[in-house]
Amino acid sequence: MLPDLVASNDARLAHAVAELACSRERLASSMGALEQEITRAIDWREWVRRKPRATLALAFALGAFLGRRA
């Protein structure tokens, strides 16, 4: 009976370790995707490519504001 209990615990432990490794891989993948998304979101070149009119309007407004202050 004792060897069955040990084998059962070993199987559970092996399953838990495999599940933990799988979770770590998923977390690493998610973190990589998040890092890429953040990098893309704060990249000003990408923002200009996606919203050229808004960028032009912002540049014009900023130029007008700074021009009046001088």
**Percent of sequence in beta strands:** under 5%
What multimeric state do the chains show? single chain
Number of helices: 3
- Uncertain runs with pLDDT below 50, 5 residues or more? none
Rg of Cα set: 27 Å
Strands, total number? 0
- The average pLDDT score comes to 88
Q: By helix and strand content, what is the structural category?
A: mainly alpha
Order of SSEs, N→C? Answer: HHH
Termini separation (Å)?
89 Å
What is the general shape? rod-shaped
Largest sheet: none
How helix-rich are the residues, as a percent range? Answer: over 70%
Domain count: the total is 1
Summarize the structure in words.
It contains three helices and no strands. The chain has one domain. Helix 2 (44-50) crosses helix 3. With 70 residues, the protein is mostly helical. The N and C termini lie far apart (89 Å). The mean pLDDT is 88.
Note the main attributes of this structure.
70 residues, 3 helices, 94% helix
State the gist of this model:
It is built from 3 helices and no strands. With 70 residues, the protein is an all-alpha fold.
Q: How is this fold's topology laid out?
A:
Elements: H1 2-42, H2 44-50, H3 52-69
Helix pairs in contact: 2-3
